[in-house]
């Protein structure tokens, strides 16, 4: 576009020297305005990073440098003070692990202090596993520092208004800090522990940690990485330590290649004289681990050390309102840890709320729907108890269950539920299920190898992948199963079961697993959770063994109706340390049934759920509209075609002057006219592209003809015509559901017809299919031939009066083809009729009573098979010199020599008398041994359509 201002006038208006300056200023202002317009919203916070030296330790005099970052809302000042959040990271992480969560909280108006815990990253000191004298006192000194900041709101001098949020390692710190320092106003501990000794040395029959079974897999992850001085334990990073997306929680990012998690390049290593076996772990922690790892058992000193770093002993001192968030996919700290913490804190009268989600150390943040719920609960808790905004959140219990996949992003979707009161691991009620199985002997493998694999740290349940491979080792486990459940059951909490065990050595280590087994035998172990058991003082005989109650891990899992429950007692598991000496033990089920906890709950309405209902309503409207449209069309057709053509009333099929032309002008069928009568098996023949399949598709209403009529028992055939119920068909392959068995596919198909089940004649159809016991297998596992036989059985359901089959022998082996021949012949002898399209001419000749030959969209011959074969002009000559005879015959006008697989001469005489042909051969000195008519359908077919005939390209 031309400027409205003449260039000459602009040049005259500015002196030459100032013109460039003015232009530059204009360009700079324009660029600044453009950048301001497109630049993303500036963050609503500022950050300050520093190395803070705090003094802690048993005497409070030990100095340690902590790497910190403070996130301050941009408008925070001494005149506008803001509440604070102390945000702790997970084990092996750094302050950077929780940066995103810190930014979210800062945007919400909180001052957020993050730091790298002692022993990790750039911070100094050694790892004491959240010791009250070390990590907890470090956090107290950070509270002191916050109280001195002019931007932080305080309740009194030296008392900041503060909440503490953290997950796993950071979650335990939140609990221990709240118990040790009453300045904490609210806490949100996530995926953390109650008693660290029981977490790493669990015993599910009620034994003490000194009798527990060592969780060596997870412990090795912690201490194995700690052996590299200067880095945190490898692997305790990434999504496993992060709370749901957007929720304040711990979780360092995955380390860069060659760099331990939480270790910055060039960071000081610290722990100069540390034991290389434990890296930056404190000496007492390292020694306790080495003793346990070497023996698989814990002494009391080790248990006492771990309990000093556990909230279990100090829960009664926590007065800060507590939101406990725990993951259902967590083999490190399962749901029972949060339950123990909740009971201990609530006993003191402190407000407590419990929330379970489908994530954890093995499940990461869980589905986005769960992330949103946890994020909302966390913000609600902090806003009320720390910021002082909003109503009290209450103490409702929330949990969720995987509902499926999101249709948009294919991610998992979890449905949330809530109940007014937290029911604990026992649920609101219990459902009992009887397990059965004989007394069984199980072997403990020498040195614990090979071991079953139920889970892998951070990977969750592998049962679906390892089923039949390493999930349960043969000879090392016993199974006890229930009958199929009559109704579905939603398990929410810890199932319990009784077992009995006997051993010549008086002691046994077992791992109890509760599988959900579907109708096909597929077994699912929810989240890979198992219950380790160590039983001592056992008798040698199972008859003298007393029942022991085992509490299985808490789960949230729906067992569908028809599924079975399977209890497995295994002697080994890759995640745990088991006895080294090989032994054989005896196990049996107890006297009481398996007890399953259930919870009466309400669905949590969410935006996604509301949109789902809107979508369901829209789909329902569309479906109703389609149903109405189909009904109207059917009524129209019925009004138009109520009469019966008297000429064809007793004729199963009459095709009159059929033509099918497509929109692009292609003519697939130009003139087809034939009938199928009761008792006949009619073969529809023709080369590829002749129009056979198009004819069948028109016949079954899959496409509409351009011209012509089709009558079935005198009724003009139209889409939706009731007379279609008298036709069974297999055209263009069946549409089976792969996850259902063959029998259930047939049953579902028949139910869709709306006809009584007694009319289906399933027994006859299954006999025809000849699938045997395979009819109870999933169709997805069928071979092509098996699917074809099932499709033919489906076409014969209800014993229709007219059967239409397109290439029914496709995929069948010779014995099956022979059986299919007999089936079709028997089917027609009862007064019914069969129309079959096939390219196997020998089979048509042996099976069919009549044939219709189509070529280039037209019928070139029809009638009884013997008549069509009899019309063949081909003759078989057996001669003394075939080569010389071929030369003689080739010289005769109209005579054509055809190839024959046996080396004989097949001659198409084309009207020339056979005697004349024989005379010519004899005159040439060629001996003629035998002359017989060539009476094969193949010869007649070739004579009718030509050897090189090609169809019109049937669609």
Automatic annotation (TrEMBL):
GO molecular function, one term: ATP binding
Entry annotated with the keyword Ribosomal protein: no
UniProt domain ABC transporter: residue ranges: 653-881
InterPro entries per record: AAA+_ATPase, AB_hydrolase_fold, ABC_transporter-like_ATP-bd, ABC_transporter-like_CS, Galactose-bd-like_sf, P-loop_NTPase, Xaa-Pro-like_dom, Xaa-Pro_dipept_C
Composition bias type Pro residues, residue spans: 247-258
Biased composition (Gly residues): 259-273
One Pfam family this sequence matches: Peptidase_S15
Bilayer-spanning residue ranges: 610-633
Disordered, as annotated region: 231-273
Keyword Protein biosynthesis: no
Keywords per UniProt: ATP-binding, Hydrolase, Membrane, Nucleotide-binding, Transmembrane, Transmembrane helix, Transport
Superkingdom to which the source organism belongs: Bacteria
Family membership noted in the UniProt record: Belongs to the ABC transporter superfamily.
Protein's name according to its UniProt entry: ABC-2 type transport system ATP-binding protein
Organism in which the protein naturally occurs: Micromonospora phaseoli
